[in-house]
Amino acid sequence: MHGTDELGGLGVTTFDLPSDREVRITRVVAAPKQLVFDLHTKPEHVPNWMLGPSGWTMPVCEIDLRPGGAYRYVWRASDGAELTIAGTYEEIVRPDRLVSTEVLSGDLPPTRNTVTFHERDGRTTITTTVRYPSPAVRDAAVRTGMRDGMDASYTRLDAYLAGLEPVPSPDGNAWPLQEIPPGSKPSTDD
Amino acid sequence: MVTTDRLSATFAALADPTRRAILARLAKGEASVKELSAPFAMTGPAISKHLRVLEHAGLISRGRAAQWRPCRLEAGPLQEVAAFTEEYRRFWDDSYARLDAYLQMIQDGTAEATAAGEPTEGPLDARDG
């Protein structure tokens, strides 16, 4: 489709900006796509892994997996901080594709998130494309990222740039991000 | 401090692998157009076009003093986008590391939660992608 199955090996999350209002995240896992799809869409599985940095749990995971159905995830940090993401499924093509809207903590218009699962040789490439509805919404998200992540990212810019591809690949938009120390937590928007 | 036009220009500039490669090269120090062209099968004018996009986005600047007008990285706009994308990276990199471990556990049969009772379209490991 767009060659993302060529990207990276296991254990590397690649990241790029396919357009001026999209973010794309890609990861290859060693499992068939049916299983990987289920781990993204079943409430008995999602809270076991979709947790971000250590210290966070997902006490609420509600999934109504049908077009028009709602989902809601609530994360809780060890210090009690909470983060909620909610949205609606728009398209469900098991085990290939999942399209949903996503609202983070209720204060921005929704993004449209498309997740595709592409299997080859027993491995599945998970590609998540987050599309901001307008430049204004993207800008608000960028400002949030700057507010919450500025200190950390200043110290990491070297690593960030080092992860940029040294040479262009024929079909690659890969933007590997690596070497970032663990231990930070996701932004709480409030 | 961040304008929509500038952010749009930054995102658009970063959406191209050649331009990202140019930035990665410039992160190591300033360089001439000729040096920047070397790794690419591209003409000078093609590279110059990419450089204009990067310059317009404020991601690079061009020297005036020297005849060869060295290009150098301007970290500011990149910093803004890096802080933004860092939010995604933090979350997904750590989550996917957990997903790897969880998948291994399930496929080793040590987790009883393996899609229990769910009808599947066939053997999990036998379907063509």
UniProtKB/TrEMBL annotation, chain A:
<dbReference type="InterPro" id="IPR023393">
    <property type="entry name" value="START-like_dom_sf"/>
</dbReference>
<dbReference type="Pfam" id="PF08327">
    <property type="entry name" value="AHSA1"/>
</dbReference>
<feature type="domain" description="Activator of Hsp90 ATPase homologue 1/2-like C-terminal">
    <location>
        <begin position="31"/>
        <end position="161"/>
    </location>
</feature>
<dbReference type="InterPro" id="IPR013538">
    <property type="entry name" value="ASHA1/2-like_C"/>
</dbReference>
<comment type="similarity">
    <text>Belongs to the AHA1 family.</text>
</comment>
<protein>
    <recommendedName>
        <fullName>Activator of Hsp90 ATPase homologue 1/2-like C-terminal domain-containing protein</fullName>
    </recommendedName>
</protein>
<feature type="region of interest" description="Disordered">
    <location>
        <begin position="168"/>
        <end position="190"/>
    </location>
</feature>
TrEMBL record, chain B:
<dbReference type="InterPro" id="IPR036388">
    <property type="entry name" value="WH-like_DNA-bd_sf"/>
</dbReference>
<dbReference type="InterPro" id="IPR011991">
    <property type="entry name" value="ArsR-like_HTH"/>
</dbReference>
<dbReference type="Pfam" id="PF12840">
    <property type="entry name" value="HTH_20"/>
</dbReference>
<dbReference type="InterPro" id="IPR001845">
    <property type="entry name" value="HTH_ArsR_DNA-bd_dom"/>
</dbReference>
<dbReference type="InterPro" id="IPR036390">
    <property type="entry name" value="WH_DNA-bd_sf"/>
</dbReference>
<feature type="domain" description="HTH arsR-type">
    <location>
        <begin position="1"/>
        <end position="93"/>
    </location>
</feature>
<dbReference type="GO" id="GO:0003700">
    <property type="term" value="F:DNA-binding transcription factor activity"/>
</dbReference>
<protein>
    <submittedName>
        <fullName>Transcriptional regulator</fullName>
    </submittedName>
</protein>
